[in-house]
Write a structure and sequence with these properties.
260 residues; alpha/beta; Rossmann fold; 6-stranded parallel β-sheet; 3-stranded antiparallel β-sheet; 6 helices; 9 strands; 26% helix; binds ligand LXAUTJHC; 6-phosphogluconolactonase activity; 6PGL; EC 3.1.1.31; 6-phosphogluconolactonase_DevB
Length: 260
């Protein structure tokens, strides 16, 4: 069993609310310490639940002009398509957060500036990430050209995938760039863009956000094995912390799964 921080809650709604409380605290801390905050959103069911909980918080007058949002992966369909992770975030309340549009770093869409060229689109997102690469990493080792993310959230599929890195899929082998175009995804839609492992691991904190009984086996494998090829969620750790935010159903096969 890995020495990761386990945060287990009784249900998905409580889980999402507590994730958001912790996220807002991390963002405030990053703004105070470094003057800006970089957060990576996940798509999927927990991406939606977290965004709903975040956008439902009472409005405050906090300055969010230095908060940047990124995505860990995106589905290669046109802008505005309900399958897109960014569109699901918008539908869940993204625009109510008060974060400037220029700081919301969406992955390119099919049929947009890069037409149907998903490779070029992935490379363009890598360039956008590189614009926020810092020279001063506050003592952390520097490597891939991405901002050092303060919190990078990852949903986990029932198969153990994270972002759009799927079990036994060759996109996992891409370690020389920070983004990868994913073809033949086993989960629809078949074409996607994903951060690669080196980019994902450039995060002070990685937060796995997982709810539901169908994820319990994947969570157990991720916490007890080091086998990225078969369970991508077993592959990554944050630079300072790795936190598993689980509801009791997703934590069913994890030892000491006391909910609060
Ligand atoms: O397709 C995707 O799936 C994963 C997991 O989503 P879930 O709905 O099973 O929770 C998600 O993390 C990823 O961002 C998304 O593109």
């Amino acid at each position: 069993m890995k020495d990761h921080d386990l945060q287990i809650r009784k249900d998905k709604a409580t889980l999402a609310a507590d994730i958001v409380d912790a996220l807002v605290a991390r963002i405030d801390e990053a703004l105070q310490q470094r003057g800006e905050a970089h957060v990576v959103l996940t798509g999927g069911s927990m991406g939606e639940a977290v965004m709903q909980a975040w956008s439902a918080r009472p409005a405050d007058d906090a300055d969010r002009s230095a908060v940047h949002l990124w995505w860990g992966d995106e589905r290669w369909v046109p802008a505005g398509d309900a399958e897109r992770n960014d569109q699901q975030a918008v539908d869940a309340g993204l625009k109510r957060l008060g974060i400037p549009d220029d700081n919301i770093h969406r992955m390119p869409a099919a049929g947009g500036s890069y037409g149907d060229d998903v490779e070029r689109a992935a490379a363009a997102y890598a360039s956008e990430l590189a614009e926020f690469d810092e020279a001063d990493t506050n003592g952390l080792e520097e490597d891939p050209a991405v901002p050092t993310f303060d919190v990078l959230m990852l949903g986990v599929g029932p198969d153990g995938h994270i972002a759009s890195l799927f079990p036994q899929h060759k996109a996992q082998n891409c370690t020389t760039t920070t983004t990868v175009a994913v073809h033949d995804s086993p989960k629809p839609p078949p074409t996607r863009i994903s951060l690669t492992y080196p980019a994902i691991e450039r995060a002070r904190e990685i937060w796995f956000t997982v709810a539901g009984a169908d994820k319990a086996d994947a969570v157990e494998r991720a916490l007890t094995t080091d086998d990225p090829w078969n369970t991508p969620a077993s592959a990554v750790e944050g630079l300072r912390a790795t936190v598993w935010w689980l509801d009791t159903a997703a934590a069913a096969k994890v030892p000491s799964n006391d909910a609060s």
